[in-house]
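Summary for the funding panel

The consortium committed to producing paired sequence-structure records for every protein in the target list. Below we show the first two records in order, beginning with the earlier of the two.
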Amino acid sequence: MEHENATHALAALGHGTRLSVFRLLVQAGRGGRLAGDLAQALSLPGATLSFHLKALGAAGLITAEQNGRTIRYRADFDAMNALVGYLTENCCADDATRCATPTACPP
């Protein structure tokens, strides 16, 4: 992951609502969640949720799939794992034996 991409992703996740949305999508797994379900789970108006989903999408952290009148959102696990990898790539001054075992979501 490039430094600039990591900066955008971290900025997007730096907002409490967007972090909550992203965590719900991670918890949902590969199946994702419908926009209406996200709005209900977080008690957000549709326009507010849409604003935050757009920011997460622009940061490359989520994907959207439209099916008729509904949109299903999914966490981009590859992007999430790349961000975690970027943050930990120089862990413990390149002495991996001093670092905790890194974990990643399975593909």
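The next record, for a separate protein in the list, is shown here:
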Amino acid sequence: MRRCGLGILLLGCAAPVFAQNAPLSASGLSRWKLSLPVDANGDGKADEVANLRGYANPPWFHATPEGLIFRAHAGGARTSGSTAYARSELREMTAAGRPAAWDCLQDTRSLSLEQTLLATTTAKPEVTLGQIHDARSDNLMLKYSGPADANGRTDSGRIELLWNDAAQREVLDAAYTLGQPMRVTIAADHGTVRVAYRNLVSGAEKQLAAHLAPAGIAGACYFKAGVYIQACSKLGSDGLPNVVCAKKGWAEARYDAPEAYAEVLIRQIDLN
């Protein structure tokens, strides 16, 4: 494996050449488990799927000729009673099938994605497209934020990197239009995270280093990818109130309808 700079795998010099690879299928997700925005067994929590080989649950997760679709809606089931938001999101696992847990400040890990944000909610058009998470919260997020008058299909917004529980942030792409594929590498090395971003249509690109604050880290870290919408409805698709969402106290126009959704296509994913 070739590395650049501070021993970090960077998109511009050593990231996988995704264009030469076949689109991602569920069989290529052996080191991930999936959280869905549905509660099929009625236990009050979002369903999780550990073995994704051959798995599909459209429209929330399914294969297309271009790659894998991930969709989450504002009224979807949530992973716990403390979160307002639904997700169709991958969580990093080990080769042995256990939850990955690496040292945020000592280990070296990288995640590379080729993905396209296809749709967003409209009242609050915000979507997280990748994370480094620890035992308590997100240390680093790749996030899209759309315009106030979003239609959710053809908007232009910004792609940002947020880290240290969103205390720090920087814009990676100030004019990202829905439907444009992007390549992103997130490479962590001893508490420094180098991120390389490129919009494959506009050519916009940026590289930056984010330094994780030791005081803000709780336990071990792991990667997440897919759709984690930052929008919700006061009433879930199950007809029950989303109390956490209602407590946010937004203006009514900021609450989405339960069926409003965000969707991302992941063409390639590479974990090291």
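Regarding this second record: The chain is about 5% helix and 40% strand. The radius of gyration is 17 Å.
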